[in-house]
Each structure stands twice: as structure tokens, then as C-alpha cells.
Amino acid sequence: MSLNYSLILLVLLVLIVLLIVFLRRNAKDKKSLGEQLNASELQPDKHDDDETAKG
């Protein structure tokens, strides 16, 4: 059985390029998500006066 090494090399090269693109996009999305979460202001839950007086 003869292996076509040029085809195997091409497939490996494409996989490596796709992996690099995926990792870069993931890092960019992670940074963007962090910025969005830091920019959003979350308001704390408000408690009724009755609940705080019991505690």
C-alpha cells in the first residue's frame, strides 16, 4: 500500500492552520466577553425591609 506523503502533508498543514485560526478567534472572543461582562453593571438584589428586620 503506497502512501501519498504530499497529500498527508497538505492535510496536516491545513489542520494546523485551522487550529491556529480557531485558537486566535477563541482568545479574541474570550477577551470580548470579559470586556462585556466588566462593562455591564449588575444591580444587587433589593430586600424588603421586613426580611432584613427578621434577620
Description:
This protein has 55 residues and is mostly helical. It has helices at 5-39, 49-54. The chain is rod-shaped and about 80 Å long. The model has no long low-confidence stretch (mean pLDDT 81).
Based on the model shown, name its key terms.
55 residues; mainly alpha; 2 helices; 75% helix
Task: Return residue spans where pLDDT drops below 50 for at least 5 consecutive residues.
Answer: none
By helix and strand content, what is the structural category? mainly alpha
Mean pLDDT: 81
Distance between the termini: 79 Å
Q: Shape from CA axes?
A: rod-shaped
Instruction: Figure out the total of helices.
Output: 2
Largest sheet: none
Number of E-state strands: 0
Q: From N to C, what is the helix and strand string?
A: HH
In percent, how much strand structure appears in the residues? Answer: under 5%
Q: Whole-number radius of gyration?
A: 26 Å
Provide the helix percentage: over 70%
Topology:
Elements: H1 5-39, H2 49-54
Short account of what is shown:
75% of the residues lie in helices and 0% in strands.
